[in-house]
Amino acid sequence: MSDQSRFTDGASGYAFKPHEMPILPGSPANPDHPTARKIAYLVIGVFLGLVGGAQNGFLLANTAALQGDMALTPVEAGWISVAFYATYACMSMLLFRVRQEFGVQPFVRYAMLGLVAANLVQLLEPGYSAELAARAVAGIAASGLSALSIYYLMQGLPAAARIGALILGIGLAQTAFPLARAMSPYLLIDGDISRAFQLQFALALVALGAVTVLRLPPGYRSKTFERLDLFSITLFMAGVTALLAFLIQGRIQWWDTSWLGGALAMSILCLGGCYLIESNRRRPMLDTRWLSSRAILALAITGAAVRILVSEQSFGATGLFSALGYGNEQLTGYYMVLAGATIAGSILSLVRLDPRDLTRPILFAILVIAVAAFADTRTGIMSRPGDLYLTQAAIGFAAVFAMGPVMMEGMLRALAAGPAYVVSFIAVFSLSQTLGGLAGVSALSAFHTIRLKTHLIDAGSTLTAANPQLARELGQAAARFGATISDPALQQQAAAARIAQEAGREAAVLAFNDVFFLIGSLACIAFVIVLAPWVMNRLRGRNPLSKELAFLETMRPGNK
User: Fold this and answer.
1) Using an 8 Å Cβ cutoff, are 210 and 84 in contact?
2) N or C: which end of the chain has fewer CB within 10 A?
């Protein structure tokens, strides 16, 4: 430690004091910067967080345009999502080890160059195979940008508030999703997706320039990689990729597709092999005993459950607007409202964060999701985006408001257990968020499909020639087509097709109302499950994080 106590940055001339050195190898030091430099770090941190989130945000917003531009089938477009999520979910663990082994500056340099390269490949539009590779590299870069954003935010925040950078980093990544959707209609002129790629490439270049001009302070490195890491990481990535393929392609091709069972079996075998290796290592990369403890499992399940509940927005509301015929160009105001609500959730989560009671904001967020979901069950075919502003803003707010405490509790438990446990927590948290979101969308999609068929059957039983109301509506619709269609038989066919289309739209809306009711019910169940132990701990005067909070006190600069 004596060498670290007089660590000097040759580039800037800083000589760091012991309490300014990072707790974890591979992280930057935390000196007291001048005010102007702190502001610059904050601005760059915010920008990096938005750029990292935009990598997936633009993909989600422009999937249909990408399919049309490259003439892709839905299955092929699904594999592009698999390529991104597979590397994004797995790289948090690997990149953490890279930072420890080689230092923060090489990590910054290669992460940013990877992002520029991925966006350049997309800009050149070489074809489907190259797009798959570019999305995989973008997933790696986006994962790295999340860490970089947090590091830069920490440099700009006061020492007492630096841990809040974790919450701000999550909020910025979430804010980028609705912002990308709000911006996309102005980029996709005549369905040309090249402007979206141009913007992503320009953002990547600006980000590269920003981190080059204002570098992070150096830290210290440690020897971390071992030979078994290669086998563990390979099995982990193969298992997660197979599981993601199962979740994403199952929703597209439906769950009875024969090869999906093989993908799920491969996922179980590969993740099981990774578990066996890590469980029997002297220095595991993932501490499976710690990860399988009750507290960490509960934390991972809570984080995944919140992501599943928030799927009410990513699948439910978005799917409802699509069924009602609204495109992105008609939803820019809606997505700007979501972006504002997400920012508000991040700020309020940071302001109201109390390490002594991290469960209370989670309870509040789940309750908000339940109330908003039940309120959305009132939607109908005449609903407009403005009718859902309040409820969807509440859900966007709750999503970030809950994730901050979950992330905080996990980091406290990992740091108190030892720096080596941070890798394990980052891996399980990133995985729970990715899988929770995709599993939620897949499950809700299957539920919606089943309920849609049920409502169509119910509607079909009333659409008979013996129904006098249907006969009147057919006659009125045929009369409206009379101005453009002279043949009476064709008028009747067009009228019948129009009524069938309206019946299908109404059935889709009713099915989405069932989805909203299901989410509200699940949120109520989750609220009770989280509430029960919280009440018991309050009655007993027990804080489950007492040891971790004591450790947090020792981390404060004045206590070192």
Assistant:
1) no
2) N
Residue 280: pLDDT over 50? yes
The three-state secondary structure class of 15 is strand
What residues have CB less than 8 Å from 488, skipping those under 6 apart? 478
Q: What is the pLDDT of residues 424-451, one digit of tens each?
A: 777 777 777 787 888 888 888 888 888 8
- Under the phi-then-psi rule, with left for phi > 0, alpha for psi from -120 to 50, and beta for the rest, what region is 152? alpha
Write down the pLDDT at residue 346. Answer: 84
Q: Single out the residue of 225, 398, 424 nearest to residue 311, CA to CA.
A: 398
What pLDDT, on a 0 to 100 scale, did the predictor assign at position 464?
A: 53
Residues above pLDDT 90, as percent of the chain: 3
Q: What pLDDT, in 10s, does the model give residues 454-470?
A: 887 776 666 555 556 55
Candidates 305, 307, 306, 312; CA nearest to 374 is 312
The confidence band for 220, taking pLDDT boundaries of 50, 70 and 90, is: low
Q: How confident is the model at residue 10 (pLDDT cuts 50, 70, 90)?
A: very low
Q: Tokens 């809570």 sit at which residue?
A: 302
- 454's enclosing H/E stretch is helix 420-462
Check the CA dihedral 247-253-255-261 and report its sign: negative
Residue 434 token pair: 């990715």
Q: How many C-beta atoms surround the C-beta of residue 209 within 10 A?
A: 11
The structure tokens listed for 188 are 């996709």
Q: CB pairs under 8 A, 24+ apart, for 184-192?
A: 184/58, 184/61, 184/62, 184/65, 184/328, 185/327, 185/328, 185/329, 185/332, 188/62, 188/65, 188/328, 191/65, 191/68, 191/69, 192/69
The reported pTM is 0.81
* Under 8 Å between Cβ of 489 and 460: no
pLDDT tens per residue across span 178-193: 888 888 888 777 667 7
- Is the distance from CB of 560 to CB of 19 less than 8 angstroms? yes
Q: Per-residue DSSP letters for 396-412?
A: HHHHHHHHHHHHHHHHH
Interatomic CA distance for residues 269 and 373, integer angstroms:
37
How many residues are there in the chain? Answer: 560
Secondary structure of 135-163 as H, E, C letters: HHHHHHHHHHHHHHHHHHHHHHCCHHHHH
